Known about the structure:
The chain is an alpha/beta fold. It has one domain: TIM Barrel (Alpha-Beta Barrel), CATH 3.20.20.140. Helices cover 37% and strands 9% of the residues.
Amino acid sequence: MPYAEGRIYNDADSHLMELPDWLGTYADPDIRERLLPPYFGATGRMRDAIRQQRDPDHWQKVKIEENLMNLKGWEAFGASDSQERTQALDMLGFNQQLVFPSIAFSQFWGIFGQQQTNAKLLYGGARALNRAMSDFCACDKRLIPVGFVPLDVPELAEREIEEAVRLGCRGLWIPALPVGDKSPTHPVFNGVWARFQDLNIPFLLHVGVTPLAVAKAYMNNGLPATDFLGGGETVHAKDYLVLHTASEIFLGAMVLDGVFERFPRLRGGCIEEGALWVVPWLKRLDAAQETFVRTEPSLALPRHASEYVHRQLRFTPHPTEPVGWMIEQAGEDLFMFSSDYPHIEGGRNPLKRFDLSMPGINETAKERFYAGNFVDLVG
């Protein structure tokens, strides 16, 4: 019996767990020698399974069908093997699943905002990752590969967007950061947004490549704490409060600076950064537009700022958030189901948590949450 049944479930966030030498096998020779070692510091105790030698009957011993949602990271079924992943998807019962990398971008981009600046490495590494993600998902049309494209050099970014689509990527992760001294809304990036729009592929923001917003001094509070993942650069309670900040600023700029007005078919998703913040953010966007339009004439857009969000953006809540209340406050068109499989943050029973968070929500709104809004985003 599948984990999910009774309706269509489209999963807007899952992950491949990369092995240490995985990315290099897809890189051009001159890039392979430049790649950095993968950064495992944020994966904590999940990485211990990388070194485990498994018996041929390992999956029978762990009773995988009973423990599918309990095994996380590299220990999970289908974490790194594409054939296993197809079987895992059968057991999960999901109709489609976006598949993101977990750590491979650390080998050419960096992590937590400490990015590389060498353009050859940035774009050569991105192309290797996009090849690898497409190859992992090629065996099953339900697996939708998400590539990675830095915006550092606009003309190179445009080229890699086109190449990623040719390879088979159907979504592209971009860092939610300004690019040097320029906003991502600067006219030099118009060609980037045009490529996304014309190639009918969404840009995706995701936790992991932007700096954590809380100064480390706030963690020096004299109180005991254990890392959630048992690792180094892991998320703590105060990080969780502002995990979305970089994406909130990025998307706010995209709305207020008119990018979505100029590119009305451009679509974007904000993944694994929660969505509770979206409810007040919609109000703040409209208030900012109304308050500052006298001194910033470009804010006189044909639509209210929040309307662009409803038309062109989608978000994945955490399973601990009150999704029913969020739908009541902000509408049924914004939020999407995600499992985060096989990352530990997704929990052992996200469907139960989401269902319990939506008492009184009608069937149409639930269908949009579990399936329809995903289709709006992915196309």
